[in-house]
Amino acid sequence: MLIGLTVIIGILFFGAYFLRKLNGGRSFGNAGPMRIVGGLMISVRERIVLVEVEDTWIVIGIVPGQIKTLLTLPKGEIPAANSDEKPFGKWLKQMTERNK
């Protein structure tokens, strides 16, 4: 039983290594035009995520069973955090107030 478990774990590691080599050495999720800039947990099952697609930032609300675009903005800079508020939350508050 121990030998069988070792063989299965070895196959899993070999498969992961092979897929990484097949992908050009890049890890999965980092390739392509999209990048997650930041996120904010609203509750255990709800999140707000900032996604960068080329020169656009998209603010997305994620709840179980649904993903919604909340706001689309031109790409900008997130200032460094110098207060006790989290930087993404502070940035999101500034951007929503600015676009009203």
What does this structure look like?
The structure is a single chain. The longest helix has 21 residues, at 2-22. This protein has 100 residues and is of the alpha+beta class. Strands 1-2-3-4 form a four-stranded antiparallel beta sheet, covered by helices on one side. The protein contains two helices and four strands, in the order H-E-E-E-E-H. The protein is elongated and about 65 Å long.
In short:
The chain has 100 residues and is of the alpha+beta class.
Helix amount: 25-40%
Tally of DSSP helical segments: 2
| Number of separate strands | 4
Going by helix content, strand content and strand pairing, the class is alpha+beta
Distance between the termini: 64 Å
- Work out the oligomeric state of the chains in this entry: single chain
H/E element order:
HEEEEH
Q: What's the pLDDT, averaged over the residues?
A: 81
What value does the Rg take, in angstroms? 20 Å
Q: Could you say which overall geometry the principal axes of the C-alpha atoms support?
A: elongated
Query: Low-confidence stretches at least 5 residues in length (pLDDT < 50)?
Result: none
Strand order of the largest sheet: 1-2-3-4
**Major β-sheet, in short?**
4 strands, antiparallel
